[in-house]
Amino acid sequence: MALVIDLKPNEKILIGEAVVTNDSQRVRLHIAGNAPIMREKDVMKEEEADTPCKKIYFLVQCMYLSRNPKEYHEKYFDMVNEVQEAAPSTSVFFAGINNHIMSDNYYRALKEAKELLKYEQELLKNATAAE
Predict the structure, then answer these.
(1) Other C-beta atoms within 10 Å of 72: how many?
(2) What is the mean pLDDT of the chain?
(3) Residue-wise over 31-49: b if at least 16 C-beta within 10 A, else e?
(4) Strand-pair category, 37-39 with 12-15
(5) Are 9 and 34 in contact (CB under 8 A)?
(6) Coil, strand, or helix at residue 39?
(7) Of 33, 31, 36, the residue nearest 16 (C-alpha)
(8) pLDDT (tens digit per residue) in 11-43
(9) Are the beta carbons of 123 and 93 closer than 8 angstroms?
């Protein structure tokens, strides 16, 4: 079954190692195959990874898009240990993310990492409010 994606005018999407940019009209794509696919709005640039959990999201994204995702594992697991030491409540997120990574299901890991980003925002907001 093909993945169906609606692109807004001028929206970009990553398909494998290619960036596809839509023209000035809305378009619907039917994509079959096994290439990593990410919408522009979900792609994090390295310079945007300015918090510990954003760095983790970026590493999971790199795994998802990479031909050799295991090259990012060591750095990822080092970052996870640091974050869990600082915020043990994040462990529940990492249990799911790690399970997907170890099963080579990087897309699912990326989706769970997105939930981790939301949780990090809550933690940062609460820490700022407590000051």
Answers:
(1) 19
(2) 94
(3) eeeeebbbebeeebeeeeb
(4) antiparallel
(5) no
(6) strand
(7) 36
(8) 999 998 899 999 999 999 999 988 999 999 999
(9) no
Q: Nearest 5 degrees, angle CA 47-CA 71-CA 33?
A: 90
With CA atoms as reference, report the closest residue to 60 among 73, 50, 47, 51: 73
Place of tokens 């080092």: 78
Q: For the packed helices 73-86 and 91-102, what is the interaxial angle rounded to 10 degrees?
A: 170
12-15 vs 18-21, strand pairing mode:
antiparallel
DSSP lists the bridge partners of residue 28 as 6
Say how many C-beta atoms besides its own lie within 10 A of residue 65's C-beta. Answer: 18
Partnered with residue 30 across adjacent β-strands are: 4
Strands 37-39 and 18-21: unpaired
Q: What's this model's pTM, rounded to 2 decimal places? A: 0.90
